[in-house]
Design a protein that fits this description.
The protein is mainly α and about 110 residues long. Helix content is about 95%, strand content about 0%. The protein is elongated and about 70 Å long.
Length: about 110
């Protein structure tokens, strides 16, 4: 799943959520005014849209988890294949962060 498809899914999910909220508002107004067939039909429509939004959210969650797993696996693989480079990178970053903190503390 790439960035553009993730954006499309987010937009659809947001649209579904907004639709559910709008229909829920209509349902509350209808129930306050009158009961009956209109309220039942609207409640069914709201439930359908809510279920759809939940399914899309689950799909998005699964896609994010898969990307996270792939990133963690690639990182683990790199560290195992290049242990010395990884240690050098970590040491370099630590030195830069330490120097930055030292400079900030000296200014005060």
């Amino acid at each position: 799943m790439n960035h553009s498809s993730t954006q499309v899914i987010k937009k659809r999910l947001l649209a579904d959520f907004n639709a559910v909220m709008s229909e829920t508002d209509q349902l509350l107004k209808l129930v306050a005014d009158e009961g009956g067939d209109k309220a039942v039909a609207l409640r069914t429509k709201v439930e359908r849209n809510l279920d759809s939004a939940k399914q899309q959210l689950r799909g998005l969650e699964e896609a994010v988890m898969e990307k996270t797993r792939a990133g963690a696996h690639a990182t683990d693989e790199y560290v195992h294949e290049n242990p010395w480079q990884t240690m050098a990178i970590a040491a370099g970053l630590s030195a830069v962060v330490g120097a930055a903190i030292g400079l900030l503390l000296c200014r005060r």
